[in-house]
């Protein structure tokens, strides 16, 4: 992994940690799979930090451009999956 995670200067240290945790979860879904509920918990926390759709899209696009992993597709797959399942892209 030779890229950095997107974040905003006005986020607190905890918000940066939680946002990075979400992006790490996206990576996990692509690389080895992850429990759906854990992923959705991280996504819900990310949405508390970035509540606006436009901001979410901008930040997730930055992450996808740097990593090649689509947060949008990972969230869609998780939403379409049954509870208590392991999801993988």
UniProtKB/TrEMBL annotation:
InterPro entries: BH2638-like_sf, UPF0223. It comes from the Bacteria. Pfam families: UPF0223 (PF05256). Belongs to the UPF0223 family. NCBIfam families: PRK04387.1. This is UPF0223 protein BTO28_00055. It comes from Domibacillus epiphyticus. The lineage of its organism: Bacteria, Bacillati, Bacillota, Bacilli, Bacillales.
């Amino acid at each position: 992994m030779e890229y950095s995670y997107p974040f905003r200067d006005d986020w607190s240290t905890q918000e940066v940690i939680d946002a990075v945790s979400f992006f790490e979860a996206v990576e996990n879904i692509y690389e080895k799979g992850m429990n759906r509920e854990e992923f959705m918990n991280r996504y819900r926390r990310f949405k508390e930090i970035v509540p606006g759709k436009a901001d979410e899209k901008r930040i997730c696009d930055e992450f996808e451009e740097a990593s090649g992993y689509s947060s949008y597709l990972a969230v869609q797959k998780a939403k379409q999956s049954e509870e208590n399942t392991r999801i993988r892209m």
